[in-house]
Design a protein that fits this description.
Length: about 210
């Protein structure tokens, strides 16, 4: 869910929400004063369901980021000012504006948008998911193509038989038969559905049962 965190007025925040298409009539807005008045029991849930936060301080931004992280949300934070730096550092991924952003903001961020175009974030998300998927495909292919040779060599060792392949032959097979296909899997282009896939868990392994 996209959220707006701003120190501006409610009217300005609402106008921004409309301009980026998140004001669908069911938008939830919360001021900094209302945010600080929330009880701890329901605070995280209310923050996760709120679209726009207005009249908030830099400390409020940090608390919102931490609250979302506490409920296992993957948080990406964008900003361009000095007052955004700490919140950028607190998020999983801090994104700073390269042209209009301050030095402190860019130093705290993980990603700097050199063109100050928010749409570039979508390209970065797609590229990141594609790289992870390609790594998975590469490793799975290498493991599956090597498992046969591993089984044969292991059986020969256990049964005290002469291995059918020596080390040079195995290396040659890996270079000629496994290398090019594995490399092609590692540079597969991005698919359209990569952009809109749900964020993967930070604990997800490259190799799993699937």
């Amino acid at each position: 869910m996209c959220k707006i965190l701003t120190g501006d007025s409610k009217e300005t925040a609402n106008s921004i929400a409309k301009s980026i298409g998140i004001n669908d009539g069911l938008i939830k807005m919360l001021s900094g004063k209302e945010l600080n008045a929330l009880d701890n029991k329901h605070k995280n849930q209310i923050i996760s369901q709120t679209h726009v936060f207005y009249r908030i301080s830099p400390i409020d931004k940090i608390n919102i980021v931490k609250s979302l992280r506490e409920i296992d949300q993957i948080v990406a934070m964008t900003g361009d000012g000095v007052n955004d730096a700490i919140a950028l550092r607190a998020a999983h991924i801090g994104i700073a504006m390269g042209k209009s952003g301050t030095d402190a903001c860019k130093e705290a961020a993980d990603i700097v948008l050199t063109d100050d175009n928010i749409k570039s974030i979508l390209d970065a998300i797609t590229e990141g998911k594609t790289i992870f998927k390609n790594i998975q495909n590469f490793v799975r292919f290498q493991i599956s193509s090597s498992i046969t040779a591993l089984i044969v060599i292991s059986l020969c060792t256990v049964l005290n038989l002469k291995p059918p392949l020596n080390s040079s032959q195995i290396l040659w097979i890996n270079i000629i038969m496994d290398g090019p296909p594995a490399q092609s899997l590692g540079v597969e282009p991005a698919q359209n559905n990569h952009t809109y896939q749900s964020p993967r868990s930070v604990n997800e392994q490259i190799i799993d049962r699937s």
